[in-house]
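In response to the reviewer comment on reproducibility (Comment 2.3), we provide here a single inverse folding case reported in full, input and output, so that an independent group could reproduce the run without further information from us. The C-alpha coordinates appear first.
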Protein backbone atom coordinates (compact mmCIF):
# COMPACT_ATOMS: atom_id res chain seq x y z
CA UNK A 1 0.00 0.00 0.00
CA UNK A 2 1.28 3.47 -0.86
CA UNK A 3 1.68 5.56 2.32
CA UNK A 4 -0.49 8.65 2.63
CA UNK A 5 1.20 12.06 2.76
CA UNK A 6 -0.81 15.01 4.06
CA UNK A 7 -0.51 18.08 1.85
CA UNK A 8 -1.98 21.56 2.14
CA UNK A 9 -1.68 24.68 0.02
CA UNK A 10 1.05 25.82 2.42
CA UNK A 11 3.29 22.90 1.44
CA UNK A 12 5.18 22.01 -1.72
CA UNK A 13 6.70 18.54 -2.02
CA UNK A 14 9.47 17.73 -4.46
CA UNK A 15 10.11 14.07 -5.29
CA UNK A 16 13.40 13.02 -6.88
CA UNK A 17 14.08 9.80 -8.78
CA UNK A 18 17.59 8.81 -9.81
CA UNK A 19 16.15 6.60 -12.48
CA UNK A 20 19.38 5.03 -13.74
CA UNK A 21 19.44 2.93 -10.55
CA UNK A 22 16.07 1.33 -11.42
CA UNK A 23 17.54 -1.60 -13.32
CA UNK A 24 15.86 -4.55 -11.56
CA UNK A 25 13.56 -6.36 -14.05
CA UNK A 26 10.88 -6.92 -11.39
CA UNK A 27 10.82 -3.20 -10.53
CA UNK A 28 10.57 -2.20 -14.18
CA UNK A 29 7.75 -4.69 -14.70
CA UNK A 30 5.90 -3.28 -11.69
CA UNK A 31 6.21 0.25 -13.04
CA UNK A 32 5.06 -0.81 -16.48
CA UNK A 33 1.88 -2.29 -14.99
CA UNK A 34 0.85 1.19 -13.83
CA UNK A 35 0.94 2.78 -17.28
CA UNK A 36 -2.06 3.01 -19.58
CA UNK A 37 -1.99 1.65 -23.13
CA UNK A 38 -1.00 4.96 -24.71
CA UNK A 39 1.89 5.37 -22.27
CA UNK A 40 3.12 1.84 -22.93
CA UNK A 41 3.07 2.48 -26.66
CA UNK A 42 4.96 5.74 -26.20
CA UNK A 43 7.56 4.06 -23.99
CA UNK A 44 8.58 1.51 -26.59
CA UNK A 45 8.95 4.17 -29.29
CA UNK A 46 12.08 5.56 -27.67
CA UNK A 47 15.20 4.30 -29.42
CA UNK A 48 17.67 4.62 -26.55
CA UNK A 49 17.38 2.38 -23.50
CA UNK A 50 18.07 5.32 -21.19
CA UNK A 51 15.17 7.27 -22.70
CA UNK A 52 12.82 4.28 -22.37
CA UNK A 53 13.74 3.90 -18.70
CA UNK A 54 13.45 7.62 -18.04
CA UNK A 55 9.97 7.75 -19.57
CA UNK A 56 8.84 4.65 -17.68
CA UNK A 57 10.10 5.98 -14.36
CA UNK A 58 8.58 9.42 -14.99
CA UNK A 59 5.09 8.09 -15.65
CA UNK A 60 5.31 5.66 -12.71
CA UNK A 61 6.55 8.46 -10.43
CA UNK A 62 3.65 10.75 -11.33
CA UNK A 63 1.04 8.03 -10.81
CA UNK A 64 2.40 6.59 -7.55
CA UNK A 65 3.15 9.98 -6.03
CA UNK A 66 -0.27 11.46 -6.73
CA UNK A 67 -1.77 8.40 -5.04
CA UNK A 68 -0.02 9.49 -1.84
CA UNK A 69 -2.33 12.52 -1.70
CA UNK A 70 -5.69 11.21 -2.91
CA UNK A 71 -7.57 7.87 -2.75
CA UNK A 72 -6.97 7.02 -6.40
CA UNK A 73 -5.04 3.91 -7.45
CA UNK A 74 -1.87 4.69 -9.46
CA UNK A 75 -3.20 3.01 -12.59
CA UNK A 76 -6.49 4.95 -12.37
CA UNK A 77 -5.19 8.50 -12.77
CA UNK A 78 -6.37 10.34 -15.87
CA UNK A 79 -4.87 13.47 -17.38
CA UNK A 80 -6.31 16.14 -19.65
CA UNK A 81 -3.93 18.44 -21.59
CA UNK A 82 -4.63 22.16 -21.75
CA UNK A 83 -4.42 24.13 -25.01
CA UNK A 84 -0.64 24.17 -24.71
CA UNK A 85 -0.25 20.47 -23.94
CA UNK A 86 0.30 20.71 -20.19
CA UNK A 87 -1.50 17.82 -18.46
CA UNK A 88 -3.99 18.46 -15.66
CA UNK A 89 -5.66 15.90 -13.43
CA UNK A 90 -8.89 14.58 -14.87
CA UNK A 91 -10.12 12.52 -11.91
CA UNK A 92 -13.28 13.80 -10.23
CA UNK A 93 -12.38 13.11 -6.59
CA UNK A 94 -12.06 16.41 -4.66
CA UNK A 95 -8.70 15.46 -3.11
CA UNK A 96 -7.43 14.72 -6.61
CA UNK A 97 -8.76 17.83 -8.36
CA UNK A 98 -7.20 20.18 -5.79
CA UNK A 99 -3.72 18.88 -6.60
CA UNK A 100 -1.35 20.69 -8.91
CA UNK A 101 1.83 19.07 -10.16
CA UNK A 102 4.66 19.54 -12.60
CA UNK A 103 7.44 17.20 -13.68
CA UNK A 104 10.84 17.68 -15.25
CA UNK A 105 13.55 15.23 -16.25
CA UNK A 106 17.10 15.24 -17.51
CA UNK A 107 19.90 12.73 -17.83
CA UNK A 108 20.07 10.87 -14.52
CA UNK A 109 17.28 12.64 -12.62
CA UNK A 110 13.50 13.12 -12.59
CA UNK A 111 11.86 15.80 -10.40
CA UNK A 112 8.16 16.05 -9.57
CA UNK A 113 6.68 19.00 -7.65
CA UNK A 114 3.24 18.70 -6.03
CA UNK A 115 1.07 21.12 -4.07
CA UNK A 116 -2.60 22.07 -3.68
CA UNK A 117 -4.53 25.02 -5.09
CA UNK A 118 -1.54 26.90 -6.46
CA UNK A 119 0.13 26.58 -9.85
CA UNK A 120 3.79 25.74 -10.05
CA UNK A 121 6.55 24.75 -12.44
CA UNK A 122 9.79 22.85 -11.98
CA UNK A 123 12.85 22.44 -14.17
CA UNK A 124 15.92 20.27 -13.67
CA UNK A 125 18.98 20.21 -15.92
CA UNK A 126 22.16 18.15 -16.10
CA UNK A 127 24.99 20.65 -16.42
CA UNK A 128 27.58 17.97 -17.17
CA UNK A 129 25.92 16.65 -20.33
CA UNK A 130 24.91 19.95 -21.96
CA UNK A 131 27.35 22.53 -23.25
CA UNK A 132 26.03 26.00 -24.01
CA UNK A 133 27.21 28.92 -26.09
CA UNK A 134 26.71 32.65 -26.09
CA UNK A 135 24.73 32.29 -29.31
CA UNK A 136 22.07 30.25 -27.51
CA UNK A 137 21.75 32.90 -24.81
CA UNK A 138 21.40 35.56 -27.49
CA UNK A 139 18.48 33.69 -29.02
CA UNK A 140 16.71 32.76 -25.78
CA UNK A 141 17.49 35.37 -23.13
CA UNK A 142 16.34 38.93 -22.54
CA UNK A 143 18.89 41.65 -23.38
CA UNK A 144 19.59 42.35 -19.69
CA UNK A 145 20.33 38.66 -19.10
CA UNK A 146 22.61 38.45 -22.14
CA UNK A 147 24.51 41.54 -20.97
CA UNK A 148 24.97 40.18 -17.44
CA UNK A 149 26.02 36.76 -18.70
CA UNK A 150 28.74 38.40 -20.81
CA UNK A 151 30.36 39.75 -17.64
CA UNK A 152 30.60 36.34 -15.95
CA UNK A 153 34.06 34.72 -15.84
CA UNK A 154 34.54 31.79 -18.23
CA UNK A 155 34.66 29.23 -15.42
CA UNK A 156 31.25 30.40 -14.16
CA UNK A 157 29.59 30.86 -17.55
CA UNK A 158 28.03 27.38 -17.77
CA UNK A 159 26.60 27.54 -14.26
CA UNK A 160 25.24 31.06 -14.71
CA UNK A 161 23.59 30.15 -18.01
CA UNK A 162 21.68 27.32 -16.34
CA UNK A 163 20.78 29.47 -13.35
CA UNK A 164 18.92 31.65 -15.83
CA UNK A 165 17.68 28.75 -17.94
CA UNK A 166 16.15 26.70 -15.12
CA UNK A 167 14.38 29.74 -13.67
CA UNK A 168 13.00 30.66 -17.11
CA UNK A 169 11.82 27.10 -17.79
CA UNK A 170 10.19 26.82 -14.36
CA UNK A 171 8.37 30.11 -14.92
CA UNK A 172 6.92 29.28 -18.34
CA UNK A 173 5.89 25.86 -17.04
CA UNK A 174 4.11 27.45 -14.07
CA UNK A 175 2.27 29.72 -16.50
CA UNK A 176 1.12 26.56 -18.30
CA UNK A 177 1.85 28.06 -21.68
CA UNK A 178 5.27 26.64 -22.50
CA UNK A 179 7.28 28.24 -25.28
CA UNK A 180 4.32 30.27 -26.47
CA UNK A 181 5.74 32.79 -23.95
CA UNK A 182 8.76 34.46 -25.63
CA UNK A 183 11.80 33.81 -23.47
CA UNK A 184 13.23 37.25 -24.19
CA UNK A 185 10.14 39.08 -22.90
CA UNK A 186 10.83 38.39 -19.24
CA UNK A 187 14.08 38.48 -17.34
CA UNK A 188 15.67 37.39 -14.11
CA UNK A 189 18.35 39.25 -12.23
CA UNK A 190 20.33 38.43 -9.14
CA UNK A 191 20.54 41.23 -6.55
CA UNK A 192 23.10 39.02 -4.82
CA UNK A 193 24.22 35.41 -5.08
CA UNK A 194 21.38 34.17 -2.84
CA UNK A 195 18.51 36.14 -4.36
CA UNK A 196 16.56 36.26 -7.61
CA UNK A 197 13.98 38.70 -8.96
CA UNK A 198 11.72 38.55 -12.02
CA UNK A 199 10.70 41.35 -14.39
CA UNK A 200 7.93 40.68 -16.93
CA UNK A 201 7.03 42.68 -20.04
CA UNK A 202 3.54 44.14 -19.37
CA UNK A 203 2.36 42.78 -22.73
CA UNK A 204 2.65 39.24 -21.30
CA UNK A 205 -0.17 40.00 -18.86
CA UNK A 206 1.66 39.00 -15.71
CA UNK A 207 3.36 40.51 -12.67
CA UNK A 208 6.71 39.20 -11.46
CA UNK A 209 5.59 39.73 -7.86
CA UNK A 210 3.00 36.98 -8.37
CA UNK A 211 5.67 34.29 -8.08
CA UNK A 212 8.14 32.77 -5.63
CA UNK A 213 11.30 30.98 -6.73
CA UNK A 214 13.77 28.50 -5.29
CA UNK A 215 16.92 26.95 -6.73
CA UNK A 216 19.21 24.20 -5.46
CA UNK A 217 21.55 21.45 -6.67
CA UNK A 218 20.26 17.92 -6.04
CA UNK A 219 23.72 16.68 -7.09
CA UNK A 220 26.91 18.47 -8.20
CA UNK A 221 25.84 17.78 -11.81
CA UNK A 222 22.18 18.82 -11.54
CA UNK A 223 20.47 22.17 -11.02
CA UNK A 224 16.78 22.47 -10.10
CA UNK A 225 14.55 25.55 -10.09
CA UNK A 226 11.00 25.81 -8.74
CA UNK A 227 8.44 28.53 -9.48
CA UNK A 228 5.23 28.70 -7.44
CA UNK A 229 2.34 31.13 -7.29
CA UNK A 230 2.07 33.40 -4.26
CA UNK A 231 -1.32 32.91 -2.58
CA UNK A 232 -0.80 34.97 0.56
CA UNK A 233 2.01 36.30 2.70
CA UNK A 234 3.12 32.92 4.01
CA UNK A 235 6.15 31.26 2.42
CA UNK A 236 5.27 27.63 1.51
CA UNK A 237 7.18 24.91 3.29
CA UNK A 238 9.35 23.01 0.82
CA UNK A 239 10.04 19.31 1.41
CA UNK A 240 12.34 17.23 -0.78
CA UNK A 241 12.36 13.43 -0.84
CA UNK A 242 14.13 10.76 -2.85
CA UNK A 243 11.85 7.94 -3.94
CA UNK A 244 11.72 4.70 -5.88
CA UNK A 245 8.40 4.53 -7.75
CA UNK A 246 6.36 1.66 -6.25
CA UNK A 247 8.91 1.59 -3.39
CA UNK A 248 10.33 3.45 -0.43
CA UNK A 249 11.04 7.16 -0.04
CA UNK A 250 13.57 8.94 2.17
CA UNK A 251 14.16 12.58 3.15
CA UNK A 252 16.64 14.29 0.84
CA UNK A 253 19.15 16.77 2.21
CA UNK A 254 19.37 19.93 0.13
CA UNK A 255 20.85 23.41 0.42
CA UNK A 256 19.09 26.47 -0.95
CA UNK A 257 21.15 28.42 -3.48
CA UNK A 258 18.74 31.20 -4.44
CA UNK A 259 15.27 32.39 -3.50
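Designed residues, in position order:
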Amino acid sequence: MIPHHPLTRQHIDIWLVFYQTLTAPALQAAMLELLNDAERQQQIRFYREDDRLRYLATRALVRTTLSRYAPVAPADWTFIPNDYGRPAIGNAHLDARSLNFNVSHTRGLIALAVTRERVLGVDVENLATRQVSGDLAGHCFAPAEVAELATVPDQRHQDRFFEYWTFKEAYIKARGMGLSIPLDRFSFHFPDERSVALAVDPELGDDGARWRFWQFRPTPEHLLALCAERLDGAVPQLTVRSVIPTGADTPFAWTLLKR
